[in-house]
Task: structure prediction
Amino acid sequence: MSAPTKRLYIKTYGCQMNVYDSERMADVLAPLGYGMTDEPEGADLVVLNTCHIREKATEKVYSELGYIKQMKQARAEAGASMTVVVAGCVAQAEGEQIMIRQQAVDLVVGPQAYHQLPELIARTHRKRGERLAADFAADEKFDALPVERNPTGVTAFLTVQEGCDKFCTFCVVPYTRGGEWSRPVETILAEARDLAAKGVREITLLGQNVNAYAGEGGLAGLARRLAKIEGLDRIRYTTSHPADMGDDLIAAHAELPQLMPYLHLPVQAGSDKILKAMNRAHTAESYLRLVEKIRAARPDIAMAGDFIVGFPGERDADFEATLQLVREVGYAGAFSFKYSRRPGTPASALPGQVADEVKEERLARLNALLDEQQRAFNASQAGKVLPVLFERPGRHPGQLSGRSPYLQAVHVDGPDRLIGQIVPVRIEAGSKMSLAGVLEMETA
Result:
């Protein structure tokens, strides 16, 4: 392939699936001569890969488009051009509105249509044809993507499932990503083999409901086949739904050393009344029993979760039930948010919307508890020897940065030749965000 002649800037908002999608956009645009740049100034093509989960995330996109418009005008005055694309879930949900609200946008592409970017950009450049491409066609998208990728490190994301059939009342995903769809096993394995051959040691399988993966053997069967790929030493997956955490997947955690002992299993709330209003299809008690079963199969597993505070109708007793569930589970990590009304979702029209100042106070209390648990978990690693996959140089000279099996950042002093290797590290201290340690031994 010839050297890139045009500059591509991609800004990614939101989840890991958007990170994966951004990487794949770069892959499909590379044959057109586009090479990545870190800054939008001077870019020939700017892509904003958007997230629609929360209102503020959407507004950030429009704010960014204001800056991009100024850059586009400056390039036009200098006799150059800039093509502006809005991709992802905001594009899917608000396509026509984006074109009306910000006329600097040349093209709007939904998450299931970015494989069409080369053709759509060519049409845009010819000043004719479609400007909107937001239809659901996940199978067509993945069929059109090249198997070969160009990973930039020793870890990589790999999408195996898209969409959601759960219809939680607060969530826009079923409307922006469509229904649940799973990639065929063989195409996933081919992509994973290619990544491993290029030095990737750890993959994270992605899906809106990744443990609803419906390919042959389910997610457990897929994990078992991935574990046989030479050089692929670590497997993670996110995000899971409690309703899809079956016994076969729990057993896989006990049987496969490649499957990392860190499970992100969102619960969202600890009140059965709120869980029912969210349409979560589980209760607090069923979630707690599920955690018990998982820990019985894999005693060293660490749990992570998601929480929403201030959901419509949430009273003090409901919030206290969430705090109690957190105390019973004990989380090693978590994401927590104030409820954000998303137009078109059932929850946006529910009575009992909670005042923002109440949400703020509850979120602060929840975060204080979650932070305390995360600090305690990290501190408990002191004195242990953990296998650490070193990913990159650290911030300081002579320092390396890697990840423990529990997804914790680990910093040690060591030579760069250890990057890409899994090395035993004796942990000396743990803070909220990371672990510090020393090399137990060096490998050749």
